[in-house]
Design brief:
It is a single chain. This protein has 283 residues and is an alpha+beta fold. Helix content is 22%, strand content 31%. It contains eight helices and 18 strands. Strand 10 and strand 11 form a beta hairpin. The radius of gyration is 18 Å and the shape is globular.
Length: 283
């Protein structure tokens, strides 16, 4: 009953208004307010601040600067095997596996199509049919910068409008087509083995996304499916920074058939760290 009530609330909440308010609050520069919020989050979610480039709270201009903090050099090792595909983020595996007949499993009987997720034409969707996918959830305690899973060139980015439902485990198990309904940014990455789709999914309180090649993408929120101009470096080595969530969310990777074999240990709820091998290139 509680889950049904919480789910109903998700449908009626003013997602964008709440996210806009939080967006402003997270940028308050008053030292007392900012440090109080940081300490509260660290305690509530057991954030390991010792991994941050600076553990001095006064070094952060506002909470969002802390939330998108850099890590100390060497804290994450990028797997060096030339055939490895790495986790692009710190997080937990929500789901992963086969894209079956163009459909991606979400949770508990829910799924959605590649075409819905990418807001693309049938030709693009067919490219990923029968391929592999990995959905990684970033919680408030996680490092919130995103990185390249393999050497690549960014060929196109597409901003897709949508809702801003929570993307926590319970909502993934309660709201149909969750990731294909939320606002998101699709980055198409060209590699020497083929194209992969790298999807940044927004969420309530987590509606701000930026990349190193687009700058700040949201806000403003999208009103229609729009290709976003690429203004920065398009060539990325494995482990290079792709962007950041200004508050946490979810990343989805799509691989075409024959490109990748997911690691056997990659199962639901498994904790992964940036740089850790999650798949092997088959070609």
């Amino acid at each position: 009953m509680k889950r049904k009530i919480y789910t109903l609330i998700q449908y009626v909440l003013p997602h964008r208004l709440l996210s806009s308010i939080v967006n402003r609050l997270m940028r308050v520069e008053n030292n007392t307010v900012k440090n109080f919020i940081i300490n509260k989050i660290c305690k509530t979610y057991n954030v390991n601040i010792q991994e941050a480039a600076s553990d001095n709270l006064d070094d952060y201009k506002h909470f969002n600067a802390f939330f998108t903090r850099e890590l100390k050099a060497g804290v994450r090792r990028i797997d060096s095997d030339e055939k490895s595909i790495i986790s692009p983020v710190d997080g937990a595996i929500s789901q992963c596996g086969d894209i079956k007949k163009g459909r991606i499993f979400q949770a508990k009987g829910f799924d959605f199509t590649v075409e819905e997720l990418l807001a693309c034409d049938k030709h693009t969707a067919k490219y990923y049919q029968d391929g592999k996918f990995a959905t990684i959830y970033l919680s408030p305690k996680d490092y919130h910068r995103m990185h390249a899973p393999m050497d690549c060139e960014v060929s196109k980015t597409v901003h897709i409008p949508g809702r801003l439902f929570s993307v926590a485990k319970w909502t993934a198990e309660s709201i149909p087509r969750l990731f294909a309904r939320n606002e998101r940014l699709v980055c198409y990455l060209e590699t020497q083995y083929g194209q992969i789709a790298y999807i940044l999914v927004g969420a309530i309180m987590v509606s701000s996304m930026e990349t190193v090649f687009n700058g700040l993408v949201t806000p403003p929120y999208a009103k229609q499916v729009t290709e976003v101009p690429i203004i920065g470096n398009q060539n990325l080595a494995k482990g290079d920074e792709v962007g950041r969530f200004n508050m946490g969310s979810t990343v989805i990777l799509l691989f075409p058939p024959g490109l990748a074999k997911l690691e056997k240990e990659l199962i639901e709820n498994k904790i992964v760290k940036l740089g850790e091998k999650i798949a092997t290139i088959l070609q």
